[in-house]
Design goal:
alpha/beta, 14-stranded parallel beta sheet, 10 helices, binds uridine-diphosphate-N-acetylglucosamine, binds calcium ion
Length: 489
């Protein structure tokens, strides 16, 4: 015996008002349908069938990586009709589980509980008690509280409409019986649809009992029909993630202001996360890591004792033990920082290795570089790694000191313990242990006078002796090296 899971995903989703199929809308960067699929993977010996709608080709293409059989339901004639599309894949001995592709937060544990209630003499139904059951099929019970049928909202009478136990749509039963019941469905109802829910009454007629289970919360079985519901379930999901993190020993300054759009492959102890931090992809985070507010951390590996200050972005990068990043730092793909590295504000690092103890504290771009240990890179240093076509490498050896506002035009190597004078444009390899600088000599012009505006001359309001506007009284030979003097309005 095995489990055949049929995920219904053929609905139009018109209330999303979207060009995209409803089940491709995402919670935590993952399609609704993928959430459902992944939950189903917690069940052993399970084969998944996805019923998609006419025009749902993009759903199939987008999620083609899922290990599932895709079955098209050309016309959406109802939930019963949808299940019928997959029934020839079902063997008599199988247990069939029906899930909805737009109910993303269902828990594997709830499915397990449901499946335990299926037998040759019982059908299992997941129900939910609601303050306002409008829109839901109602669970009709007899005086002994046994379920006798489900009646859809549109087919319900006054008394039935008062029932606040709703059908979640999620159920499980035996293959042999399901085949029989589906073959007997009719669309003789208010919506002229083949209702899957009609099998409940047939099961009771056939002498089966209907075993019900309730979900752990209403949110677990809520479907997404519009963007308001999507946003609601996103927050529900995020609060669940926040609670899981706190249970694992992570401090969250505000569990309502964190987003986990992915997972953690490693998570140390006593991590402290300030507000508005977004984790994406797969992150590995060591112990005693502090993450400041408004950071985005994606596919990162962050070792122990690291401090990430406010407004930093780390993507596909790694940070060694005891390093300090930010505020306002950006580590781009393949930035690999060793231990005790300091990266300060407005520093961007891409595809570069930085060895231990090095500091790049202010306003720099380091790309395609290899930086040794205990290197100090001054403010405003730029590696010029790109000629518009090719990328070139900058190598800075151990102990080098790069003066502020230096451009390192790659390919170039700065030798061990070399010092580069501030403001240099380095185009050739620089020798170890020496000072290298490239700068025009500083000049002062003692005879030069600052130009003044005409109006100031007329009013006699001049700081210096009156001159005509523009440059005057300076040797013609020097004029070219002086700033252009234009009076501004
Ligand atoms: C259905 C149930 C109702 C339950 C409610 C819970 C039936 C007849 N009614 O009603 O008892 O309370 O869900 O939300 O089953 N779908 C297809 N093909 C179709 C029709 C639907 O794949 O031809 C899919 C939809 O994409 C959706 C699911 O089945 O994922 C439910 O369909 P929907 O139209 O939302 O059913 P409801 O009328 O809400
Ligand atoms: Ca629905």
């Amino acid at each position: 015996m095995s489990i055949k899971t049929i995920i219904l995903a053929a609905g139009q989703g018109t209330r999303m008002r979207s060009a995209r199929s409803k089940v491709l809308h995402e919670i935590a960067n993952k399609a609704l349908l993928q959430h459902v699929y992944e939950t189903s993977q917690a069940i052993d010996d399970n084969r998944v069938f996805i019923i998609y709608g006419h025009g749902g080709e993009t759903v199939k293409q987008t999620l083609s990586q899922l290990d599932a059989t895709w079955i098209e339901q050309r016309l959406q004639l109802g939930t019963g009709h949808a299940v019928q599309q997959a029934i020839h894949h079902v063997e008599d001995a199988d247990t069939v589980l029906v899930l909805y592709g737009d109910v993303p937060l269902l828990k594997a544990q709830t499915i397990q509980t449901l499946l335990k209630k299926v037998s040759a003499t019982s059908l299992a139904l997941l129900t939910v008690t609601l303050d306002d059951p409008t829109g839901y099929g109602r669970i009709v019970r007899d005086k002994d509280h046994a379920v006798i049928k489900i009646v859809e909202q549109k087919d319900a009478n006054e008394v039935e409409l008062q029932i606040n136990e709703g059908n979640t749509g999620i159920l499980a039963c035996k293959g042999k019986q399901l085949k029989n019941w589906l073959s007997r469905l009719s669309n003789n109802n208010a919506q002229n649809e083949y209702y899957l829910t009609d099998i409940i009454e047939m099961a009771v007629e056939d002498g089966l009992t209907v075993e019900t289970t309730q979900a752990t919360s209403v949110d677990e079985v809520l479907g997404v029909n519009n963007r308001i519901q999507l946003a609601h379930l996103e927050r529900v999901y995020q609060l669940e993630q926040a609670n899981l993190l706190m249970e694992k020993g992570i401090t969250l300054r505000d569990p309502n202001r964190i987003d986990v759009r992915g997972n953690f492959a490693e998570l140390g102890q006593d991590i402290d996360v300030d507000v508005n931090v977004i984790f994406e992809g797969t992150n590995r985070i060591g112990s005693n890591v502090k993450i400041g507010p408004n950071c985005v951390i994606k596919n990162a590996t962050i070792a122990d004792e690291v401090e990430i200050l406010a407004n930093s972005i780390i993507e596909d990068a790694s940070v060694g033990t005891g390093s300090r990043i930010g505020p306002f730092a950006r580590l781009r793909p393949q930035a690999e920082l060793a231990d005790h590295v300091h990266i300060g504000n407005f520093v961007e690092i891409k595809k570069s290795k930085v060895a231990s103890g090095s500091k790049i504290n202010h306003l720099s771009y380091i790309g395609d570089s290899e930086i040794g240990s205990k290197v100090n890179i001054g403010a405003g240093t730029i590696t010029c790694n790109y000629d518009g076509v090719n990328k070139f490498k900058t190598i800075i050896e151990d102990g080098a000191f790069i003066g502020s506002d230096t451009q390192l035009v790659a390919p170039v190597t700065v030798g061990k313990n070399a010092t580069i004078g501030a403001g240099s444009t380095i185009t050739k390899d620089t020798p170890a242990e020496q000072l290298t600088l490239s700068r025009t000599k500083q000049t002062s012009v003692p005879t030069w006078q600052r130009p003044v505006k005409q109006a100031e001359i007329v009013s006699g309001n001049t700081p210096h002796s009156a001159t005509a506007p523009g440059v005057a009284q300076s040797p013609a030979s020097l004029q070219s090296s002086l700033p252009t003097c234009k009076s501004e309005k």
